[in-house]
Amino acid sequence: MRRPRLHLPHIPQHITHRGVNRAATFIDEDDCSAYLQALGACAQHHEVLLHGYVLMTNHVHLLVSAGAQGAVSRMMQAVGRRYVRALNAKYRRTGTLWEGRYKSCLVDTDRYLLTCLRYIELNPVRAAMVERAEDYHWSSARHHLALATNLRVNSHACYNALGSTPSERAANYRLALAEVIGADALTAIRDHMRQERAWGSSRFQQMVEKTLNRTATCRPPGRPRKINPDSNGNVL
Description:
Blueprint: E1 13-18, H1 29-45, E2 48-55, E3 59-66, H2 71-91, E4 103-107, H3 111-121, H4 123-126, H5 141-144, H6 157-160, H7 166-178, H8 183-195, E5 198-199, H9 202-212
Parallel strand pairs: 4-5
Antiparallel strand pairs: 1-3, 1-4, 2-3
Helix pairs in contact: 1-2
């Protein structure tokens, strides 16, 4: 039985969706354009706000929020169906494209959200595909750096708080992009995504757990060690 996803109205979600067996999901630029067209149309239809994204060769990262329960899931299902139909027709292929259902993680709207946005938009840099985030045209980085207007992107309030004008926000975000995301933060982002938990402060996680009556923190790796008492009751 699948565990229900964590969702709270208007709380951002970091989403990742990978190709089956890590196979390519985007062969050329037309494929990327087709996915973004589907994403924009389905996000608007299901009233989901897209705050950031990156399309890699075999997976996507999205940062979204929605008010209605299930809106993000409905959007992702619609995007998947629409894009796979187009890809199958173009390449005369059949069968699945995505590796099961997408993964999602709630993100604290405090300092965590901007770190998550930087993590998403710096994916091509970490993969050594480009030297700078703005050099990659299939992400929201150019929008947030005021180098292009992307009507699909609805910049989050945390980004807007970086300045009183577009140029000020872009300049401050450029400084933020230049900061190295530490190893601990990278591990935390990936662990919370893998386990589909809530990434943020302990106060934020406690709020999620109290509101949803669900576990919001990551489990430690591995199974708990089995405790075997000896014949006298002492723990071995």
